[in-house]
Specification:
Two copies of one chain form a homodimer. Chain A is α/β, with parallel strands linked by helices and 339 residues long. The first copy, chain A, contains twelve helices and twelve strands. The first copy, chain A, starts with a strand and ends with a helix. In chain A, 57% of the residues are buried.
Chain lengths: 339, 339
């Protein structure tokens, strides 16, 4: 069972979306799981009452698996990520992560500031040995299975060694959380051949060949929407956080553009919703911050209750599968092999 | 008037697509323009006959503005780009570019190997003073006007100074060929703020602020499909060729993915064609190779006759607008200002 701390105050639609998402998640999760709503007790209680007396009246049974953990400080969008932990030690983010560091919780989920969550997770949960910074992994919808892309924004200038670490982190995540054994790892570049790419990519290609991972070689931008090359599917795609973030934001903006042009061409809203449903990020829930000692799931700032629900489910699966221990074990094994 | 040399042998569908594209282009261009079809005379003549006696029988009048220039060597996909100029001096690519270097042609268009065209253009046309390598500019369809993105694949590791040169090249191209005065230039990064981005991007941001260009600051991946930020439109987006190529190939692969899922959701092929028409690269013709002394237009390897026609029209516009002289003058002015 998992005790999942949810930042009740984080995200554009908090606390309505977060509290509602918690109730929706508990209705779908195994009854052994529970959620700790972290935030202003009075605000969370009032929101809970509104929902249970209103649109989520059928979810009253889930109330027993919810606890509220008081966190009076509020993080503003103008707060510098680096100042959050020290300056606001009783924010929902700091309190939620501290619960985990103290062994009173198993996972943390937030739709608040990504930068603040990253810094707070690094400081409070700390990093696995050998890692300096975490990586954010995002699931990209594709014509085959969703592809795990990392880093999608935490690290802008990466060394080849860091890209190899991302590959280990991503492969463990896909195996534990998505349940795909021996995931295929591709390196994002501008041509299939090992000699194609920038200097860091070419070096990383070389290192990945002897990494012990199921490395299928370079993949290109076109292989993301198709979920792999013509020959084989890809589960994990590695890139630095600059490229990953540019492509992620590009992808998020494409669907609205297409919907606009197709609506003008007379396609009905219902047809578009059915056809483009799998491009909706709320389907995929949160983006784990990998490399920290623990489970910290980043949810989109614009998360709906459904997106929060899915992020909580990702957190539960990460806990149940022992993802964090697996990551620690694999990093240790790789560093022993290298020594 | 422009004399445009077209590589009749280049591209997956040559010589049918190239010769047909030439006839289509001449029918739309000002009668003062003419096309030089470069390739095997017998092959081109046979193809011309087939088309004029068949599907393009209405285009007989265009025949007079076509000449055939013999080029017996054939470039294979296995030929190394660097070996083409020396190893196959009589390929359609080398002959076509030499016509321009010798003053007997004004522009060159090819759907053949991009790498070979880049190297041959550098060697035969040579670079403008102060530039080491050319950049490829591609038009990205957007919700507003198409956005010129460069570099989209010629330069994988770029310095901040090179990114600024791309900005000058791209702005001149947009002004001359697309007819948009004082184009807005954005720098592709992972946040609006100047301090967001990787090391090279942050330095380039700083340099662009005093470049004399209409620099609107950083743009993000999401601003490409929307054609700018919420506040303002963008005409030119600058990035290194690694990021540019990844995003370009990603974009090219998105439409087929969406078409597949929307077809399964019951949207008709006609509606999709109407709605997604502006995402078809053949609408936009060729991608100019900027920085060489002359006009060299790269057309997609899978170019249809329509795509070839549009690439030829881009070439004509580049010649008529004096793009090449403008580029030379602006680079010289910028280097004087810097000195």
């Amino acid at each position: 069972m998992a005790r999942i701390a949810l930042d009740a105050m984080g995200g554009d639609f908090a606390p309505q979306a977060t509290v509602a998402g918690a109730l929706l998640a508990l209705a779908e999760l195994d009854p052994a799981h529970c959620i700790q709503l972290v935030g202003s007790t009075s605000v969370v209680e009032a929101q809970l009452r509104t929902l249970l007396e209103g649109e989520l009246t059928t979810h009253a049974a889930q109330r027993d698996r919810l606890t509220i953990v008081e966190a009076p400080d509020v993080i503003e969008m103008t707060d510098k990520p680096s100042a959050v932990v020290r300056g606001k030690p009783n924010s929902s983010m700091a309190v939620g992560l501290r619960l985990q560091a103290e062994g009173r919780s198993d996972a943390f989920v937030s739709a608040g500031s990504t930068g603040a969550q990253m810094v707070a997770s690094m400081v409070i949960l700390r990093m696995h040995a050998g890692l300096e910074r975490p990586a954010i992994v995002t699931l990209f919808p594709s014509a085959r299975k969703p592809v795990a892309v990392l880093d999608s924004g935490a690290n802008v200038d990466c060394s080849a060694e860091e890209l190899v670490q991302f590959a280990r982190l991503g492969a463990t995540y896909v195996e534990c959380v998505l349940g795909r054994p021996n995931p295929a790892v591709g390196l994002l570049s501008i041509g299939e051949e090992p000699e194609k790419g920038n200097a860091v990519t070419k070096e990383a290609h070389h290192l990945l060949q002897s990494s012990g991972l199921n490395f299928i070689g370079n993949v290109e931008g076109r292989d993301l929407p198709t979920g792999g090359t013509e020959r084989e599917a890809v589960d994990v795609v590695i890139c630095d956080g600059f490229v990953g973030n540019v492509v992620l934001k590009f992808y998020e903006a494409i669907a609205p553009l297409m919907i606009g042009t197709l609506r003008s061409a007379g396609v009905s809203a219902e047809q578009l919703q059915a056809g483009l449903k799998h491009l909706d990020y709320s389907e995929y829930g949160g983006a784990p911050l990998l490399g920290v000692k623990g489970v910290s799931i980043i949810s989109h700032g614009k998360s709906s209750p459904r997106a929060i629900k899915n992020a909580v489910k990702v957190a539960a699966q990460a806990v149940v599968s022992g993802m964090n221990d697996q990551i620690g074990a694999r990093l240790a094994a790789a560093s022993e092999n290298a020594a």
